[in-house]
Amino acid sequence: MCPLPDDDRSSRLTCFSGATQPNEFSPDERSLLLRLAHEAIAAAFDQRAIALAPPSAHLAEPRGAFTTLYYRGGLRGCVGYVLPVTPLYRTIAETARGAAFDDSRFSPVTRDEARELQVSLSILSPPHPIPADQVEIGRHGLLISLGLHRGLLLPQVAVEHGWDRIAFLEQTCRKAGLPPTAWQNGARLEAFTAEIFSDPKM
Asked: How does DSSP assign 6-42, residue by residue?
């Protein structure tokens, strides 16, 4: 589980990773995206380009996503795009490389480490405004924003920490660098769901 990182005030944020949501992606699509993440990291060592044309209309849809990397059971990097800014297929390649080489909490992954990395992917639904009393623990992730401040927590975080709805709202405010009651005082509250899947041995 990733620690709470500082908000970088961009569409790319470090994240948490955990349990799965109901399936939108087929087993073949999941395998393809996991292989793509590994290939994007491996190709970076040789400065080798990889094909990023989405192989299907579904994988060409713009989606937010996070890639989380583990090495020998420990977190090794996690980076993602909150908003659907690029086709999912390209997003996975870019966030995999970002998690491997650009997560400021870790040194860049080495070639030897890359051979043992395990990948977990979190595919986000588009965020939508939601009243605070409709937030469902375990189903919704939260994005809270006010001015230049923004914080995001994935759906599984509240479950992992045993938070109730109010605690989840307060912690997302803290993630954004806002007072814990900001969700009651003018902050914009949006929800999303996430489908999360990992390499088979995880």
From this structure: PP-SSSEE--------S--S-HHHHHHHHHHHHHHHH
